[in-house]
Amino acid sequence: MKNCVNKLLIALGETKNLSPNDKMDKYIQISKFKKWLSGILPVELLTLSVKDVVEILVKINETGEFYKTFPDIIETPNYGDKWGRLANYIEINNRAVAEMHGSCTKNGILSLIKLLPALPPSAKSWANCIILSQIFPNIYGDGYNKLPHEENSIYGIKLNAGYSKNIINFDITNQILPEEQFVAFNKLAHIHGLKTGFRTVISADQIKVATGLNQDITFDWNNSEHEELFIREHTKLVKLGFEAIFIDSAKHIGGYDMGNYTGVGALPEYKQMQHILHEIRVRSGCTTLSFAGEKSTEDFERYKNLGLTTGTAFISPDDYNKVKCWSKKLKYQKDYAPGVEVSNDNDIGGRTYEERLHRINSILFAYEFPSDKLPSFMQMEDLFPLRYDTNTHHLMMTNPSYSIDGTPKSHWENLFAKEDGRIYNKKVGELFSYALNL
To answer: Which residues lie below 8 Å from residue 68, measured CB to CB, with a gap of 6+?
Structure first.
């Protein structure tokens, strides 16, 4: 595939020639060879051009070499095939940070590219992995925002229908395909020292299959064609450079602990999901692929044998010593380990900045040796605090625009906390600064 970053720049009316960009120099945080932007409000990056951000990313890349054009070959950060066992997974709601033009939501992938410089790069001993909340079209109004109380859930997806209008820039697909836009994002994440992945759902009634006719049909795990479609769609994304898949409701695969199941519809059988994960690995040829399962943490052997790498919410991040104790217990488990959450997609807010910082401290430092580290999970709000009257889960379930004048800038200004958010983001940067060279 051609240099998709250059293709993206040209499609956006820019040239591919790059120059050192000093627009955000005052925010650069340095930890030996690692650089990123800290003490920042997201709107300050989101209102830049994509070319500005590409130049910033090239300027702060770990090699210290400035490239006059974006390199043709940029590899994923190399932490071996089992990198996912130690990683920090940071989910970014790319729909929430998309451009809000009146009632339309678009270009989330461009907004996510613009946020990359403010995401801490991977450490010496473990990777940071960005999880995209949305890839596929959602079934409740894709491409549109609605009032804050109206459902527009990311948890309902459509397969066999390409990619979300919330995410892809469809105004330029005659010059750069949707798939190439994902490749460009992944290459820019890689030059910044990040791995990438995406969220998916497996509850049958939360998945529609586009038929090419007016009526979509509900997904059915007993339909072999639907199973094949699921494998094919996810394999395709891995081939575009994504190396992690976060699986919603993974704990309940095969009918496990259904008394606590909150999804809608049937789930795949245990052996069926083993087959699906195996097929995605084999067909993609990606030996580094990591599967993270929501709350798949109690029966370690069950989830390891399923093919998962990690799961969420097993250990309380509020107890530093307990996290450290479990890191010792599981230090020799290199194929699978349960993870620690700062927060998850069901977070309804209300946690203080101090509590969040304490949790981040636990997930970054609660171990004897970096090689013992447990995987962890964070949300966008753990880096960039949201406005007082919304929360992570609300933005997963609805798609409000907070724009006062109908412009994207106004939405970005009002989606996030103001100067207190900047101060918090700087403190998060200081924690990562200590951790990145361990």
So the answer is: 17, 18
